[in-house]
Design goal:
mainly beta, 12-stranded antiparallel barrel, 3 helices
Length: 307
Amino acid sequence: MSRLTLNCALRHASAVGLLLSAGTASAQELEPRTYSAAPAGTNFVVFSYTYLTGNVLTDPSLPVTNVQARINAFSAGYEHTFGLAGHTASIAFAIPYTRGNLSGNVIDAPTEVHRAGMGDLRTRFAFNLMGSPALSPEDFARRAPSSSIGLSLTMSAPTGQYVPSRLVNVGTNRWAFKPEVGLSQPVGNWFFEATAGTWIFTTNNNFFRGNKRSQDPLWTFQLHGGYGFGPGFWIAADIGYADGGGSSLNGVPDRDRQSNLRYGLTFSVPLARSWSSKLALSNGFITRAGGNYKEISLTLQYHWFDR
């Protein structure tokens, strides 16, 4: 396998990393290289550990104030790339297990809870519209890197642990969908990426003792820029903005519209043939609701090619 093929394969598994972190960071995750090109017939298995501390909830629009949390999340995911209408496509899924301690004020009353359980299952389908034809690993290694534009749809299914009598849960008891468009631009050893998408939520019809809770769409925008030192060895600076997502209880709007800006750094290092690791750090910069938290994520991945 050439160094170029190995490099592209290692960096592309960010799509699974996106699903892993999304389950714990309330749709405000920062994940570079999710639209980088990869050969058709590539498989990724990814394991991730994420630690979050500060004003963070699995659902930041919950009516809880002065939140302080310490959350540990463990995730496993799989991604497969394939050819579709002459272009590269991929399908990925991930499932998290979350445990943590949270304290805050519920209707001005101090409360502290411990939660642990399986989170909501997430799947992601991505399709590269331009700049990423479906190629074998050998042909892919001979092509020159170029600009690419892709579309993706991420879905969160209500499979996580949920107890209607609890205000704070690991699962969300609703479906969520995120259509997104992404642009990836390599410039020598440098790379740049921009994404724009929106989370669309269904109604939770059994929220906290039988209430109905809905949430407005949450718009997300990200910019990433980084430098590659060698196959699978790169660093990226990340910035992301989330806007919207205000909720309503039984048709009455709450004052919890999000307007959060986050920044971070991501490091990727190869470990051995077909193995690599990634360390990601992020923090809230300007926050309005649910975004003022610190996140540290460590990911281990293994990849192989179809024969």
